[in-house]
Amino acid sequence: MRLPARLSRRKPDSHKGDYGKILVLAGSAGFSGAARLCAEAAMRSGAGMVTVGIPKSINSAFLKNKAKEIMTLLLPETREGTLSLRALKKITALLEKTDVLIIGPGLGRNGETGNLARKIIGASRLPTVIDADALNALSSHPEILKSKQGEKILTPHLKEMSRLSGIGIDCLKKNRKNIAKKFARHYNSTILLKGNRTLVTDGNKNFYLNKTGNPGMATAGSGDVLSGIAGAFLGQGLNAFTAAKYAAYIHGLAGDIAALKKTQLGMIASDIIDCIPAAIKKSI
After folding, report:
1. Pairing, β 21-25 against β 49-55
2. pTM of the full structure
3. What domains can you pick out in the chain, each with its CATH number?
4. Which member of 188, 197, 234, 254 lies 3.0 to 4.6 Å from 279 by CB, making a disulfide possible if both were Cys?
């Protein structure tokens, strides 16, 4: 599958602002890696600028391994080391200067943090990728997704989709396509349902079943990488369905390249990031 021209060709007089200013709200005590993987994947997928909003206490852990190009926004935190509601004002101010929001990787399940995530998602006018703990925060209030202020990509695995929809995992496995399409249509979102043959649907006529990827990608952090790719593609001007479709494809292809280099048994999520440029090169 070939990438669209806006991803594969750049004008000679372009600058970083042309390719998306991404804000990643992610990480908590013990989970700084999720924020790093997501942000680095976005950078490797063509994002112009990436800022990561993290609890201030995990800054040292985050800085040890992050790419030098990633900027940080240190935010107020709860006693558990997760983002606090007190961070809302600073986040809202930065969203005014941002093109795309990614929220959820490693965010934690603290109740206050979940409330923060719901407030941000409900009020944001930006194209948004919602992943991991942000999906869990929405499971009790999915009506927030009906807001038409900005396009939304949801990236659940089966268990997260079960929480969101209230449908059992066994039933989901048998009816993935129909359930995902119905949910996407009802909640005005694009669903990227992860798993063996990841599927993407906007609930209308657009549907995609991905054929890249391998079992070696069943490793911690792989989903964080996928969210970063999707956010980068949104930032480069693709609509939600198209961004999710190509993100699933490039993510899987990068995983296939990584498996050839490292084996399925030995590959880790950062190997997938390292192979994103090769996957893009094969697709232009």
Report:
1. parallel
2. 0.97
3. 18-281 (3.40.1190.20)
4. 254
